[in-house]
Amino acid sequence: MEQVPTSVLSDDPCHLGEGPTYDMTTDTAWWFDIREGRLFEAQLGSGSIRVHALGRMASALGRIDAERQLIVAEDGLYIRKLADGAMTLFLPLEADNPATRSNDCRVHQSGTFWIGTMGKKAEPKAGAIYALHRGKISTLFPGVSIPNSICFSPDGATGYFTDTPRAVLYAVPLNPATGLPRGEPEVLLRHTGIGGLDGSVCDADGQIWNACWGASRIDVYSPQGERLRSLSVPARQASCPAFVGPDLSRLLVTSAWQDMDAAARAADPQAGCTFLLEASARGRAEPDVKLA
């Protein structure tokens, strides 16, 4: 296990921290506490952090432009204005199914948004992975229990995802111009040992940085599925990474205290905190989402 310099970006513990992303134009990191319906906004240069109450479970966002974000929530996609936080429904998604919510998501280089849903109690096969492409939502992979690790190779020609209970990371060939599949998913690697595959992000070299839920670490895999590095995280339930900073060399990692009783939280005092790892990464900027 590799120990890199690590600091606490936020000690406000997230019930279920998820969906971190970074806006290079404003040096701002964003992430969610899904269970509590909170959106965190951190100005990295100043260290200032604001917490926004969303009034619903939400798990991810994509930057539309300098004034708007697209928020993925439990009942649909919302356009959020940065100026005042006002949210307007853009498209419903599983709004007629109160048993599900959104989970892992990421924007492809083309502007297409891959969106995962799951049961609020992780019911088997209750969720799916969708694509928002040119203003319309289509189903990519149905019957998913816990969608995670959605990310894309630097050339946009490969997408990755997992259904966490299956302990398999899949690679699927994509049309780089659309971010949509042009072939069937294939097994890239099978996870064994402690923990499970959670959120992932690809760096500029195509390496896959995965948060290993339950194992207090970030694993780095080659595009061929070989584990190259394992970085220690000071919370057992690391949930999702994002590259941050002017040179995208640092790693923001969310975590969670979900399903931990008092004894477990006492043994894991930084559970739910959000961390910055000096990872010496070669990260990539997140693309903007395209609505049409």
TrEMBL record:
Key word Metal-binding present: yes
Pfam family, one: SGL
Domain spans labelled SMP-30/Gluconolactonase/LRE-like region: 16-256
InterPro entries: 6-blade_b-propeller_TolB-like, SGL, SMP-30
Alphabetical keyword list: Metal-binding, Zinc
Cofactor binding: number and manner: Binds 1 divalent metal cation per subunit.
Active site (record annotation): D198 (proton donor/acceptor)
Any Gene Ontology biological process: L-ascorbic acid biosynthetic process
Family indicated by similarity: Belongs to the SMP-30/CGR1 family.
Descriptive protein name: Gluconolaconase
Source organism: Bradyrhizobium nanningense
